[in-house]
């Protein structure tokens, strides 16, 4: 019997339940995957609280890695025994096994284990599109990165250095500052003690940064706009503190700024583009140019505790659930 974390009502971590589920045989275009590791992402909390609506009762989780156990009719690019990873809808990754469409699955190279894959697929593909698709960044550009010690942040820091960028990262503690710097962040700003925009202007000689990568939202949007150079780009790719209200006039006041609210799904919808982004990511990881840091491991049965830790703001790097 397989098991899955599900919720029947929205709310705090306590609404999550471990339930027995039946996993049948795959149908046309489907596969059955046995999970070896599940990615824990802040976006999971949005579904649990109802910020992202889902029909109830619902499973949870959009990222996992494991082994293909069976394939349905019409599936030719995968076979039993293949190691795979994925990120994306529908919900249900918080489980020991599941039947799902074969389309989102990405075959893993030999050099990447399933725990690493579950910790990096969503975060790594996010870092990939942020740095390789959003804006034509060039060596010498300076960017501001919020949550620089988080799972996405640590990958962005390392990848940005490979591209010749200067990274200013915001963090909450000295410990997180040291962690971000160890992964390539050039300058760290303690946002609880320092004015972020003032420090950015000081570091950049008053000019501001080319690009802001903001996964926080409501609490940081003003400082993000004030940190940009004239005609800079604000990328709001997350809403950990809530959805930011955006006044179009402020974009003009701060220097004719641009703003975008991208979603990973729109950058991996085309399988060819997804595979290109994943291929570059996997190559950096297997060659050791980007290190994936897993700082928190939880049993699948401890999903409630995992969500509490995630929302505490005390986690660093990536977190995974082990079925």
Automatic annotation (TrEMBL):
GO MF term list: mRNA 3'-UTR AU-rich region binding; NADPH binding; quinone reductase (NADPH) activity; zinc ion binding
Record keywords: NADP, Oxidoreductase
SUPFAM superfamilies in the record: GroES-like, NAD(P)-binding Rossmann-fold domains
Domain Enoyl reductase (ER): 11-321
Gene Ontology annotations for the cellular component aspect, listed alphabetically: cytosol
PROSITE patterns: QOR_ZETA_CRYSTAL
InterPro entries (alphabetical): ADH-like_C, ADH-like_N, ER, GroES-like_sf, NAD(P)-bd_dom_sf, QOR-like, Quin_OxRdtase/zeta-crystal_CS
SMART domains documented for this protein: PKS_ER (SM00829)
Pfam families cross-referenced by the UniProt entry: ADH_N (PF08240), ADH_zinc_N (PF00107)
Positions of transmembrane segments: none
Entries under PANTHER family matching the protein: QUINONE OXIDOREDUCTASE PIG3-RELATED (PTHR48106), QUINONE OXIDOREDUCTASE-RELATED (PTHR48106:SF13)
NCBIfam families cross-referenced by the UniProt entry: PRK10754.1
Protein name from the UniProt record: Quinone oxidoreductase
Protein species of origin: Streptomyces xanthii
């Amino acid at each position: 019997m397989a098991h899955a974390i599900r919720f029947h009502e929205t709310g705090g971590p306590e609404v999550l339940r471990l339930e027995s589920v039946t996993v049948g045989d795959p149908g046309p275009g489907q596969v059955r995957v046995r999970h070896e590791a599940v990615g824990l992402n802040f976006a999971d909390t949005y579904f649990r609280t109802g910020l992202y609506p889902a029909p109830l009762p619902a499973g949870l989780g959009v990222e996992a890695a494991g082994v293909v156990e069976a394939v349905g009719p019409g599936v030719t690019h995968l076979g039993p025994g293949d190691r795979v990873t994925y990120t994306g809808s529908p919900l249900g990754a918080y489980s020991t096994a599941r039947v799902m469409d074969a389309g989102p699955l990405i075959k893993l190279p030999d050099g990447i284990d399933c725990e690493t894959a579950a910790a990096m697929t969503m975060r790594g593909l996010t870092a990939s599109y942020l740095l390789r698709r959003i804006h034509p960044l060039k060596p010498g550009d300076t960017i501001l990165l919020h949550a620089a010690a988080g799972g996405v942040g640590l990958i962005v820091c390392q990848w940005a250095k490979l591209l010749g960028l200067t990274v200013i990262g915001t963090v909450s503690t000295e410990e997180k500052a040291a962690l971000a710097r160890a992964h390539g962040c050039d300058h760290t700003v303690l946002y609880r003690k320092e004015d972020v925009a003032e420090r950015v202007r000081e570091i950049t000689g008053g000019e501001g940064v080319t690009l802001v990568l903001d996964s926080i939202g409501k609490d940081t949007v003003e400082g993000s706009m004030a940190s940009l150079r004239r005609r800079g780009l604000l990328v709001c790719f997350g809403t950990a503190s809530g959805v930011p209200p955006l006044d179009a006039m402020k974009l003009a006041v701060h220097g004719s700024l641009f703003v975008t609210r991208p979603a990973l799904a729109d950058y991996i919808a085309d399988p060819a583009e997804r595979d290109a982004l994943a291929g570059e990511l996997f190559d950096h990881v297997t060659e050791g140019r980007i290190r994936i840091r897993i700082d928190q491991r939880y049993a699948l049965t401890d999903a409630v505790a995992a969500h509490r830790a995630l929302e505490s703001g005390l986690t660093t790097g990536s977190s995974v659930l082990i079925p």
